[in-house]
């Protein structure tokens, strides 16, 4: 018979993972397997891990994110679940990350190259390079000051074009804007 052995907490050092928010009812019958110093509770299953916490983002040497439920819950304590296969290796030197944008709700996130949904088109970057590029993309998504020298009636089309090039090429924002200006 195959028995499940709970992982050790250090198993998750230097990992990237996206948890999907779920309802608290999923752990009401489960016993907590581990409680961190910061108060997060972990519930291990043979398939994956639940994490109940009031904080997100960088955790020690790991990058874990929570994809919220729709509609989003207002509770500060949120429960997320991730399959064991959703934990990917992380370090600062390798080009492990690509960027995704949802233009409809104006959000930008990074994903790991091992994500099965990776389109092989977006440029892979180190975590530092990814952070810098995300900041530029958020500015293009949410501000208009960068567009003052453009005579575009459809600003959303221009945004999409610039952001797509930022994601899919190594061109700088300045080079992309210069190129678009020359095309006029």
In short:
By secondary structure, this protein is an alpha+beta fold. The protein has helices at residues 127-142, 155-168, 173-183; strands at residues 15-22, 34-35, 41-44, 48-53, 57-59, 62-67, 78-83, 88-89, 97-102, 107-112. Helix 1 (127-142) packs antiparallel against helix 2 (155-168).
Report on this structure.
With 184 residues, this protein is α+β, with helices and mostly antiparallel strands. 22% of the residues lie in helices and 27% in strands. It has helices at 127-142, 155-168, 173-183; strands at residues 15-22, 34-35, 41-44, 48-53, 57-59, 62-67, 78-83, 88-89, 97-102, 107-112. Strands 1, 2, 3, 4, 5, 6, 7 and 8 form an eight-stranded mixed beta sheet that branches. A hairpin with a 4-residue loop joins strand 9 and strand 10 (107-112). Helix 1 packs antiparallel against helix 2. The longest helix is centred in the last third of the chain and has 16 residues, at 127-142. The radius of gyration is 20 Å and the shape is elongated. 18% of the residues are buried.
Rg measurement, Å: 20 Å
Distance between the termini: 69 Å
How many helical elements?
A: 3
Structural class assignment:
alpha+beta
Low-pLDDT regions: none
DSSP E strands, number: 10
Taken in chain order, the helices and strands follow as EEEEEEEEEEHHH
Question: Biggest sheet, in brief?
Answer: 8 strands, mixed
Helix content: 10-25%
């Amino acid at each position: 018979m195959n028995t499940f052995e709970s992982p050790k907490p250090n198993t998750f050092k230097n990992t990237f993972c996206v948890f999907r928010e779920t309802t608290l009812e999923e752990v009401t019958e489960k016993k907590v397997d581990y409680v961190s110093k910061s108060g997060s509770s972990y519930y291990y299953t043979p398939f994956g891990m639940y994490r109940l916490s009031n904080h997100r983002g960088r955790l020690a040497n790991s990058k874990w994110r929570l994809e919220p439920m729709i509609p989003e819950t207002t509770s500060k304590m949120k429960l997320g679940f991730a399959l064991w296969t959703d934990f990917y290796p992380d370090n600062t030197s390798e080009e492990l990350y690509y960027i995704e944008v949802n233009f409809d709700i104006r959000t930008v996130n990074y994903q790991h190259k091992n994500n099965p949904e990776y389109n092989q088109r977006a440029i892979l970057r180190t975590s530092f390079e990814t952070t810098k590029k995300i900041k530029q993309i958020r500015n293009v998504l949410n501000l208009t000051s960068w567009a003052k020298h453009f005579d575009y009636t459809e600003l959303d089309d221009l945004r999409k074009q610039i952001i797509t090039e930022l994601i899919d090429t190594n061109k700088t924002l300045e080079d992309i804007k210069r190129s678009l200006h020359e095309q006029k």
